[in-house]
Amino acid sequence: MIQLSGAGKRFGHKLLFENLNWLITPKDRAGLVGANGRGGTTPLRVLARVELLDYGSLNGTSLRTDFVE
To answer: Of 15, 5, 13, nearest to 39 (Cα)?
Structure first.
């Protein structure tokens, strides 16, 4: 299980997401779809611990992550 709580991320002045709360249980599958350059990949990169949050918390272990850019 992995959980984002009150999570937020910016790139410079651009706000990608704020106060994001997301719980993913062991049997869940999650994905984001959207236009290129809109920050959709960033929450998944945070879950994969490739990117750091600017604020909030990421808790949990035993998560298999895959992503394609």
So the answer is: 15
